[in-house]
Recover the amino acids of this structure.
């Protein structure tokens, strides 16, 4: 029941959306609100310095239903009469580095959402920059004696007057927490134990660890910056990745956030542990030795496993797209495997740790994962859910080609030649477009050519890949459709397997 006298328009729309979201019952596939959008939420400043600070915010709760195009950020210095437009950012971006500021100056930031029907109401934030070093030293000559006096009084109060408490340190601590702490579980540093290093990039490291709470010890993975070499920009990117994981929330097929430790350094981001490691590594191991037991010829990855992994990745990407999160770097190296080889999409933050592995190649726009990028992404750096679908097609190709079966019977000369080629691929690492250099891939794709069908890959699976690589993005499938396709394939394969077992071992 909506009371017209006490309920705002925004509240009424929110209740209507909540009531319509169970779309399977009502047959509703899409909801769009025709009207001006809601404003962004939780505008705040972090990493405040004398000449810059980082401005972050959250998307409106029902933003995707309002078809929001972008955010506009304006800035006003001190008591100036008017604002000036700082930048307009796409809807997926929720942070900006506000630079070229004056020390010890108050700035007022104004932010709103935009769609084709207009702009939302604005939200404001006032933030002062830090003083420069000269002024800071001048202040210290005054503040230091005062601080010593406060310290003396605090010691006297703690010794002779139990009811006397100094709040200076507590106030500073709360300000630090307000600057960093978001919607995550903040863990005491003593509750996180780092164990074995699982991997590292240019600036980040990932450890297997243990999270201790009052009732149990939880195995986890902990991401942190390297002790040396990391810059302030990498630190902000890690905080940004943390905020994105909070926004995305939990799902069984993404590497979900457990919490973080942001009080002090280094910042620790604690996520679910993927016990079975990286999908790409497992595929390569499977190529080297596809049989665990030569006599039984039991594969480490069965065809059923591959279909299940594909279904899991599609499900994880469907969840990310529902949160208006564009991955931009979906690849087998960014898919991890948990218990029972449940696939989990990882590294969906905006920041990327560029590995020196050949996966990222130098192009005009910098080092990019061109072998997984859609044609329009290579040409004009367009990124959206349809470019992620293209990358999903390449992941399917990696799954199909990375886990090829080894022949189990005497080979012909032609088979031996192909096996030698596969061995060279195993040594070099199987990569898409292995015969082409990065800049040549664009010409290859523009000519209408695509990756070839991997050996042992079924025709219907290859057709799914090809559908993901359509030149017209609108003709590519949605992740919901892909999840359904692989779920049906999984059910069909499971049914066939049960029938085969019953034929071999009928119930007496």
């Amino acid at each position: 029941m909506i009371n017209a006298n006490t309920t705002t328009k925004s509240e009424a729309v929110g209740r209507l959306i909540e009531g319509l979201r169970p779309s399977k019952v009502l047959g509703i596939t899409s909801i769009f609100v025709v009207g001006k959008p809601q404003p962004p939420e939780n505008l705040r400043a972090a990493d405040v310095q004398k000449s810059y600070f980082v401005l972050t915010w959250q998307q409106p709760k029902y933003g995707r239903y309002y078809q929001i195009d972008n955010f506009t950020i304006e800035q006003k210095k001190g008591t100036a009469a008017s604002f000036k437009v700082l930048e307009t950012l796409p809807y997926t971006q929720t942070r900006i580095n506000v630079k070229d500021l004056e020390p010890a100056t108050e700035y007022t930031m104004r932010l709103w959402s935009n769609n084709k029907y207009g702009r939302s109401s604005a939200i404001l934030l006032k933030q002062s920059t830090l003083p420069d070093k000269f002024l800071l030293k001048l202040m210290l000559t005054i503040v230091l004696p005062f601080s010593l006096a406060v310290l003396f009084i605090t010691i006297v109060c703690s010794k002779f007057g139990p009811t006397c408490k100094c709040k200076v340190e507590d106030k500073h601590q709360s300000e630090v927490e307000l600057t960093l702490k978001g919607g995550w579980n903040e863990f005491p540093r003593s509750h996180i134990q780092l164990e074995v290093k699982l991997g590292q990039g240019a600036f980040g490291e990932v450890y297997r660890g243990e999270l201790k709470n009052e009732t149990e010890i939880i195995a986890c993975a902990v991401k942190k910056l390297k002790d040396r070499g990391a810059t302030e920009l990498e630190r902000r990117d890690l905080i940004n990745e943390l905020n994105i994981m909070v926004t995305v929330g939990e799902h069984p097929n993404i590497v979900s956030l457990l919490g973080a430790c942001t009080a002090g350094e280094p910042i620790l981001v604690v996520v679910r542990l993927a016990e079975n490691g990286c999908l790409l590594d497992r595929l390569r191991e499977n190529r080297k030795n596809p049989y665990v037991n030569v006599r039984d010829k039991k594969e480490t990855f069965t065809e059923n496993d591959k279909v299940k992994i594909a279904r899991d990745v599609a499900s994880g990407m469907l969840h990310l797209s529902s949160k208006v999160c564009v991955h931009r770097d979906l690849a087998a190296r960014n898919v991890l495997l948990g218990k029972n080889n449940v696939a989990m999409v990882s590294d969906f933050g905006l920041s990327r740790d560029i590995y020196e592995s050949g996966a990222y190649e130098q192009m005009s726009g910098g080092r990019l994962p061109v072998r997984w990028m859609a044609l329009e992404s290579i040409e004009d750096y367009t990124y959206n859910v349809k470019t992620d679908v293209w990358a999903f097609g390449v992941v399917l190709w990696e799954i199909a080609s990375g886990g090829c079966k080894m022949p189990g019977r005497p080979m012909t000369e032609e088979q031996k030649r192909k096996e030698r080629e596969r061995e060279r691929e195993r040594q070099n690492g199987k990569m898409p477009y292995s015969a082409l250099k990065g800049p040549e891939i664009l010409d290859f794709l523009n000519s209408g050519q695509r990756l070839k069908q991997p050996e042992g890959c079924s025709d219907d699976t290859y057709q799914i890949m090809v559908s993901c690589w359509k030149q017209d993005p609108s003709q590519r499938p949605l992740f919901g459709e892909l999840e359904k396709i692989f779920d049906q394939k999984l059910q069909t394969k499971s049914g066939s397997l049960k029938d085969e077992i019953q034929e071999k071992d009928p119930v007496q």
Notes: The chain has a mean pLDDT of 77. Residues 197 and 207 are 4 Å apart (CA to CA). DSSP finds 13 helices and 17 strands in the chain.
